[in-house]
Amino acid sequence: MRQRPIGDPDEPSRRVVEQRVRNRIIEYLEPASSLEAQQQYERDVPIAHVPYELINQWEDWVHKDPREDRDLSDVYDGAEVEAMCQFHAAWEDAASAVANNYPPLSEAQALTEWDRLREAARSALSVFMRRGKMSEDHEVA
User: Fold this and answer.
1) pLDDT score of 21
2) Three-state SS for 111?
3) Dist CA 104 CA 106 (whole Å)
4) How far apart (Å, rounded) are the C-alpha atoms in residues 46 and 63?
5) What long-range pairs does 111-120 form, CB within 8 A, spacing at least 24?
6) Are the beta carbons of 129 and 26 closer than 8 angstroms?
7) Is the separation of the CB atoms in 25 and 81 below 8 Å?
8) Cβ atoms within 10 A of the Cβ of 140, count?
């Protein structure tokens, strides 16, 4: 097996990977923050079950409560970490509230917990967009 030398452009640094994850979180928050975007997602991808997609996708990028993540990268500033924590709390409530029998999106959107999820996503997205997305190719200080 051929090993790549350190600094190989085909193998991004850990920092660049973390910047990419941060960008994916922003991309996740966009539909999570908008009932209309969720409905459009359902129309565009009819095989997807949007409530579960939105619940499960958060776990793709954030594996545990940000308050407990001692390894949380410095690609997030303090306000972003706090926004992630606030969103995570709303996400936990929504994940618990959505029935396990694949309810339609309209039923999930009618839940108080889903409204809290959307509001928390909107708030977090606003915080993240202060700095916007980071480079996916080179490290940003």
Assistant:
1) 94
2) coil
3) 5
4) 27
5) 114/51, 116/90, 117/32, 117/54, 117/87, 117/90, 117/91, 117/93, 118/32, 118/33, 118/34, 118/35, 119/90, 120/86, 120/87, 120/89, 120/90, 120/91
6) yes
7) no
8) 12
Q: Residue type for 94, please?
A: A
Residue 25 has a CB neighbour count (10 Å cut-off) of 23
CA gap 65, 62 in Å, rounded: 7
How far CA 86 is from CA of 63, 98, 128, 134, in Å, comes to 15, 19, 13, 22
Q: What pLDDT is attached to residue 67?
A: 76
User: In this predicted model, what pLDDT tens digit does every residue of 71-127 receive, in sequence order?
Assistant: 677 899 999 999 999 999 999 999 999 999 989 999 999 999 999 999 999 999 999
Rounded CA-CA distance 117/110 in Å is 12
The per-residue pLDDT for range 2-58, each reduced to its tens digit, is 444 455 567 899 899 999 999 999 999 999 999 999 999 999 999 999 999 999 999
Question: What is the spatial distance between Cα 125 and Cα 132, in angstroms, rounded to a whole number?
Answer: 9
